[in-house]
Amino acid sequence: MSTLQLDRSDERLSHDLTPAGRARAALRNIRSGDLGPLPVIVGLVIIAVIFQSLNPVFLSSGNLVNLMLDSAAVGVISLGIVCVLLVGEIDLSVGSVSGFTAAVVAVLFVRHDWNWVLAVVVALGIATLIGLTYGLALTRFGMPSFVASLAGLLAFLGLQLAILGDQGSVNLPFDSFLVTFAQVSFVPPWLAYVLAALAPAGMLAAGYETSSRRRRANLSATSVRVLVVRAVALLVGLEFVAWYLNRERGIGWMVVFFVALVVILNYGITRTGWGRSLLAVGGNVEAARRSGIGVRRIYLSAFAVCSFLAALGGILAAGRLASANLSSGTGDVNLNAIAAAVIGGTSLFGGRGSAWSALLGTVVIAAIANGLTLLNLDSSYRFVITGLVLAVAVAIDSLARRSRASHGRA
Amino acid sequence: MTTTASTTGNDTATSTPLLSLRGVTKTFGAVNALTDIDLDVARGEVVALVGDNGAGKSTLVKVLSGVHAPDAGTISFEGREVQVADPAAAIDLGIATVFQDLALCENLDVVGNLFLGQERNRARLDEVSMEVTSWELLQQLSAKIPTVRIPIASLSGGQRQTVAIARSLLGDPKVIILDEPTAALGVAQTAEVLDLIERLRQRGLGVIMISHNMEDVRAVADRVVVLRLGRNNGVFDAHGVSTETIIAAITGASDNVVTRRRERLDGAAGEAAAGRPATTDEEVAR
């Protein structure tokens, strides 16, 4: 029966439909350099083992709750970085943009008594304009995004200092939504279990729908059994996470918000024409142009989304700190966000990557920072170790790319 | 702008041509890549565009496909004067192009490349129907591609060529431009492509084929348009013209390396195959 299927008719194809065959195929992919999220997952396990053996608090519920809250803000910024990396560009100013917009929100909200929603909307609008400016600098003036965003890094840092004024810091009221959302609002335990069950259920439903449509179109399809096994595995995993975190404060709404953004962007990248265009522009911009894609608009959209998410991350970070100050978005925020995307497996060379890489990479970086803090090591070690991890991640990316090229893969 | 046609042999064509260029000019800095080019393609006609390296063939293709804007001249499509401002405009008009460098994204799979820029249901990609159409197209071309879910980087040159040709057939184009369509292909695939070109002609499409291979040109073309140094250098009926005449037009004179060689060989044997590109290469190599 399988030989009659449209996409299985070529006799040279190996039919990896059995579980063992699938495992062999996966191993083959990894050998040829198609690593996917494997390096980062291995890295996470190593990090967890090391820190847990040095300090048993590391994997405790309470610490993991904190770790996840710490990840969310940088993770959102990193999500934007994924978009610009996909088109083969870079935005080095996400840190300053996040700090600047956080300052805008704080000043409008606290000093000028604006409604916080309005302040956030205005700040996000400004950030989007900033991103569009980078896009225009690239597409109209041919300015490399590296340079344009480096200029932006300085300029927006200056603007941030200017609007914060002499005091240099604006404290957000503790009863404001921004602060409670980022600090003390947690998903009720029952809802956490429900959400953890909804995700695999949704995956199963979508997978079943795709499978049956493929079968109707006489294409090979994933069997129902495989779909169910996958969904059950995800269900068990997520319910365990929910249970483990619920022993303490639980899952922060900010974390749920971040994961929701990841899911949305993942859909955008993998399931829409826009995402396909991003990948095409990152892979071969001239081919994309000749196939009628509005390359300029794609660049503009990538930079706009990046700056928008940078601002969103900056606002979340301000909420978590309950203040916007001179150091918001400075220091290592920039590089952490970029490093997270790369560590998570998004290629610096464009055309390869996924929204999930922002999540995985941010967790790695946050875990290192968190673990070192638990060991009472100061930030000097953190910088060195994060730098080494980034170097390893880029080396893996480059080597995997070379290996893929020699194995005839993209 | 002006109809400076002088050598076009198609002035007496019965119907209005599908695609018609008049006085198209394109310069890159001080280089006149195209000067006053006239070209007509009728429905159901295969026009071979030939010329030496640097004659302006690929530049003309890029003008027609919207990659380069012409500096002067008019392009008419189905009797209307049109602007081909960008590749999307060309695709919208119904001009599909297979570029010499294929213009494929190596990181995307075959389906992604076939439907690039013309995805079905852009808000929620319809992968299933796109995959089915991909298989149908590839089978139509007798393509030897094992699976459409591997990145283009994994395919051989000939397979990539087939994908590029298959892509041009999507969206029911009216004119198809093939820039060196058989250059990278094996014997069987070359025959498939030539068959395909004949099928396209039967379906009433206009085909512009660029080729250095005179055998291919004479096998399928109805007319041969010769470019030389960015100018029109003759239009010939492919069925009535000798290869020597085309070569003479390509190289620019009856006194050229090819004819000199033939004169030298004259008397020894009636070598009629002087038109093979290999012959000129040998001559140059000496």
Strand order of the largest sheet of chain A: 1-2
Number of strands of chain A: 2
At the fold tier of CATH, the topology name of the largest domain in chain B is: Rossmann fold
How does the helix and strand content of chain B classify structurally? alpha/beta
* End-to-end separation of chain B: 45 Å
DSSP E strands of chain B, number:
10
- Give the SSE string of chain B: EEEHEEHEHHHEHEHEEHHH
Distance N to C terminus of chain A: 31 Å
- Report the structural category of chain A: mainly alpha
GO molecular function (chain B): ATP binding
Domain ABC transporter (chain B): 19-254
Region (Disordered) (chain B): 266-286
InterPro entries (chain B): AAA+_ATPase (IPR003593), ABC_carbohydrate_import_ATPase (IPR050107), ABC_transporter-like_ATP-bd (IPR003439), P-loop_NTPase (IPR027417)
Word description of this protein:
The complex is a heterodimer of chains A (410) and B (286). The longest helix of chain A is centred in the middle third of the chain and has 28 residues, at 189-216. Chain A is globular, with a radius of gyration of 22 Å. Helices cover 73% and strands 1% of the residues of chain A. In chain A, helix 4 (94-111) packs parallel to helix 6. Chain A has two domains: 40-49 and 56-185 and 252-406, ABC transporter involved in vitamin B12 uptake, BtuC, CATH 1.10.3470; 186-251, no CATH class. With 410 residues, chain A is mainly α. In chain A, strands 1-2 form a two-stranded antiparallel sheet. Chain B is an alpha/beta fold and 286 residues long. Chain B has three domains: 15-94 and 177-186 and 193-252, 3-Layer(aba) Sandwich (Rossmann fold); 99-172, no CATH class; 254-286, no CATH class. Chain B is built from ten helices and ten strands. In chain B, the strands form two sheets. A six-stranded mixed β-sheet of chain B has the order 6-7-8-3-9-10, with helices on both faces. In chain B, strands 2-1-4-5 form a four-stranded antiparallel β-sheet, covered by helices on one side. In chain B, strand 7, helix 6 and strand 8 (206-210) form a beta-alpha-beta unit. Chain B is globular, with a radius of gyration of 20 Å. The model of chain B is unreliable at 1-14 and 270-286 (pLDDT under 50). Chains A and B meet through helix 8, helix 11 and helix 12 of A and helix 2 and helix 4 of B.
